[in-house]
Amino acid sequence: MANFYLDNPDLKHHLTHPMMQRLIELRERNFSEAEKFDYAPMNYEDALDSYERVLEIAGELSGDIVAPNAESVDCEGPHVIDGHVKYAEGTEKNLDALVKAGLMGISLPRCYGGLNFSLVPYIMAADMVSRADAGFVNIWGLQDCAETICEFASDEQKQRYLPRVCNGETMAMDLTEPDAGSDLQAVMLKASYNEKDGTWRLNGVKRFITNGDGHIALVLARSEEGSKDGRGLSMFIYDRNDGGVKVRRIENKMGIKGSPTCELVFSNAKAELCGERRLGLIKYVMALMNGARLGIAAQAVGISEAAYREALQYAQERHQFGKAIINFPAVSEIISVMKAKLDASRSLLYETTRFVDLYKTLEAISKERPLEKDERTEMKQAQRKADALTPMVKGMGSEFCNQNAYDCVQVHGGSGFMKDYPCERIYRDARITSIYEGTTQLQVVAAIRHVGSGTYINLIREYEAMEVAEKFAPLKEKLQAMTAKYESSVAAVTADKNAEYIDFHARRLVEIAGHIIMGYLLLADATRNDSFSTSAEVYIRYGEAEVEKNSSFIASFSPADMGSYMKK
């Protein structure tokens, strides 16, 4: 029997973060639903107990059902039968188990059948499911698309669709096309309004659609005749029960093979407008993508956890030259750095999630009543931090995931190249995390404006002002020295306001800020819980070397040197 919640005390550490009481009280509207719903909590302790109970169930199902099925799902994969997806047998068992356990609609309001949980336990469940099978989380985890319906759809649409998600129906977001990958302004799937029956009809092709045959899909389509940019795009809800969409094929991918990545053909498919016309890309997709990026960051952390555990177990069991290979410094260092990267990315994941949850909840409350002045300030600050940290955790977290998967194979040596060990599948699954929902390069594009606006340095100063245990003073001094290098690097790159030069160094600047922020988060974790002390020390030393590398490169570089790197 395995339980991926109970065997990982780091999760409870993040679940009991001091900020959680504020988040839960806001989410529960000061526990006003306790009389209306018998499963609504009466106070903070009651809510936290409910979170733990659900996470224990998610951990048990992840360890006892999803993880054991991962290998067979990877081998069998989904298939297309009569234009629709047939999941692998193991995938169907996984989904059936999680639906029966009530693990759908975790963060949706109770009036639609959801649990009304904070985003933190939902992301935590995604973390565990990803550790078990990274491909399966792309099916179960797409329930977060329902947040977009909850936020922007009409009341009538919410009443029809959200209970279905809570009851176990799956979702998809149909965005990309053969000629519109990251550039969603180029989307050409046509949406036409039929005056006679008052319905919208969709025609065209979508490509690389995760779980493309889900029951309910959010579809980005061109609703304005003759338009060519994002202002002509609207968001639509497609119901598979209405027909009109066929799966042309499932992509044959490197990894996450249990997750069907589909090419879809829309043939006069009936759909409903979600929200207002012309705001599909400008407003709704941006909200959808930010949620998806947080989900991929959770997936990356879960894969990192799996990679670390596989490497650690093998290093402890594998003997060479008369001793376990973990006793060799070269291997021990790899394991230590893997754990530090895992802990750093997880700390950033849950810090980001808390800020997202705070501003989203306050935003929802603002639609029910006017916010107080301090609440409006709190919401704006949380949104700014969430906007800054989301691309950082998706970008750096997915890169750490890939590095940990690589090192897991390396620790296994020749065995790691064989399908006999899970690390081979983990390595293939990890690769996509730095590609989909915006490549690492696109995350840098989103993050660099927070370098120029000062969001990152302001956040770093907030962390710097926090008290840490006295024994961590030397590590804090290292972070302060790293911060000085960050500020000098930013000044050097932005001095001439050369946009191309700033873009050239954007990755380095964002990474420097990320290493400092994650270092401070680990110091805060270690101050609350001494079990994080080793990771804090290892990561800050690692970050110190990375900051020195990047800042030295910037200091010795000038705009004139870019020519060698910009060859056409």
UniProtKB/TrEMBL annotation:
Entry keywords, A to Z: Flavoprotein, Oxidoreductase
Domain Acyl-CoA dehydrogenase/oxidase N-terminal positions: 92-169
GO molecular function list: acyl-CoA dehydrogenase activity; flavin adenine dinucleotide binding
Domain (Acyl-CoA dehydrogenase C-terminal): residue spans on this chain: 294-439, 453-561
Required co-factors: FAD
Keyword hit for Oxidoreductase: yes
Domain named Acyl-CoA oxidase/dehydrogenase middle: residues: 172-268
Domain of life assignment: Bacteria
PANTHER family xrefs: ACYL-COA DEHYDROGENASE, BROAD-SPECIFICITY LINEAR ACYL-COA DEHYDROGENASE FADE5
Name assigned to this protein: Acyl-CoA dehydrogenase family protein
Taxonomic placement: Bacteria, Pseudomonadati, Bacteroidota, Bacteroidia, Bacteroidales
